[in-house]
Amino acid sequence: MSWEDNVRKMVPYVAGEQPKSKDVIKLNTNExxxxxxxxxxxxxxxxxxxxxxxxxxxxxxxxxxxxxxxYGVKPGQVFVGVGSDDVLSLCFLTFFNSDKPxxxxxxxxxxxxxxxxxxxxxxKTVPLKDDWSIDVEGFKQxxxxxxxxxxxxxxxxxxSLEKVEEIIKANPDVVVIVDEAYIDFGGESALxxxxxxxxxxxxxxxxxxRAMAGLRIGFCMGNEKIIKYLNDVKFSVNSYTMNRPAQTLxxxxxxxxxxxxxxxxxxxxTREWTKKELTRxxxxxxxxxxxxxxxxxxSVPAKDIFNYLRGHNxxxxxxxKPRINNxxxxxxxxxxxxxxxxxxxxxxxx
Length: 350
Ligand code: PMP
Prior knowledge:
This protein has 10 helices and 13 strands. The protein is of the alpha/beta class. It folds into 2 domains: about 20-35 and about 260-350, Alpha-Beta Complex (Aspartate Aminotransferase, domain 1), CATH 3.90.1150.10; about 40-255, Aspartate Aminotransferase, domain 2, CATH 3.40.640.10. Helix 1 (about 40-45) packs antiparallel against helix 7 (about 245-255). The longest helix is centred in the C-terminal third of the chain and has 24 residues, at about 255-280. The protein is globular. The mean pLDDT is about 95.
């Protein structure tokens, strides 16, 4: 017997590489290439740091209120956390508490199976169809909960709200979580369905479309009962999850809707340009509605392209995993960054 026998041993989630050098064109972790809203930068400089000696508001009231106003739901229908990873992790802990397996796609956000393992939640994956679309029928089997991203990651494919509703409708006895981390780049949120389904939970983030990955702000929306259950678990883990600057600066980001639309619009326009260029160079990909493209080349292996780009200080994401080991996930950067990427690919692929 050793102390190590009782350790909870995990194979952790591996986040994309954060390069030390500033010269890298970083297209590997789906951040926004533009700065946060101007008022965020201004207030960050003028912030009353004397307040840092005090604990933050445990309920993140101002941020919760700003989100409730923006999305037209009650404050009691919003829950905020330290990035959507924090929110999702608490959701797994709170709502996936059955002996039956939870369901998620086989190709999806690679944190889901890690949380399931961490909390000892049985799970079963539902294979995506050959065209990478979500197999709605697969989500009609008996289960202890359902989660999928929309648009899905890393494919970028958006499932219509009809499909999303079909999955929710088929699962009235469990919580269905729609992870909308990438919803602001041309998809349609399931938010209008909240009225109809009390077991629906929608998770979103400030990390991609609001250009604030470094501040760690995520949130979810559901009916008041579901949010109350989530708060009870949160307050059983850590009362002060969100720090003061994140709460204050997050409000300013929500208030500047024009800037939000401007930067998401720019990312979408750059994405469409990049799709055409990638096609011209012999890549194929599912039609992304996210801030990344999941591309495969007709003749050159993804791993070789990945290594070549890395050698030229352009970072994209590659997973050596079944089904997806000939694909690269390329985050949409600025026009200039994407032009540099395309030029590098052109030089390599001939
Ligand atoms: N969901 C999906 C599908 C993601 O790709 C990510 C980004 N890694 C997240 C959630 C978490 O993002 P964050 O914690 O920065 O909000």
